Amino acid sequence: MNLGLAGRRAAVAAASSGLGFATAQALIAEGVKVAICGRDRDRLSLAAKRLGSEATPILADVGTPEGATAFVREAQDALGGVDILVTNAGGPPPGGFAGTPLDAYQSAIDLNLMSTVAMCKAAVPAMQERGWGRVVAITSITVRQPIPTLILSNTARAGATGFLKTLAMEVAGDGVTVNSLLPGFHATERLRTLRGGDWDKVANEIPAGKVGDPGDFGAFVAFLCSEQAGYVTGSAIPVDGGEYRGML
User: Is the pTM of this model over 0.85?
Assistant: First the structure.
């Protein structure tokens, strides 16, 4: 299927590895010019080399609103504009209510909520002016089904979901769609950090019986950015092999 994305320009945050990298890879395969960012210069350079000439690496830390804004601004300068924004960031440390200090919440909110707000503030107005744009946020299944040991992620990403839904309603008439994808367990370094490298054990918890392939996730992001998905907006879609057990 031709997704109608050739020649578009995308900023994909936190894309030196994991789901961000897979997303950048999928968009490039559709003819999109992509700016990626990461905090580690060596990892970022390696990722850009793997992605090829259509990838522009930008050293940036989207863990703060200032860093998130700077990434989008640099991507706009490098690409001549941004038609597609994929917001993404690492996850805050694990922990529950009793063991998580109050001052840990602000950094988690900056990382997983305010970075998304900042990137959208920097990118969306120009999309509205052009009459076309796509925002896809990579969040977590925890916004639908909180994980007890991830209270910081549960809290911050739920806030981001509320922001994205509200934004979607405001800009839909301008040709801009805003959606979020809620990944479950995918074979990434984040999952390895949280659960170790025993993918078979993790797979036993998932109805699909396997850990998710980041490449498949990236392909789904690309579809949401397509012309064919132009009527999909304001959605928060689990991509989790059936892990989310709720009906709605």
Answer: yes
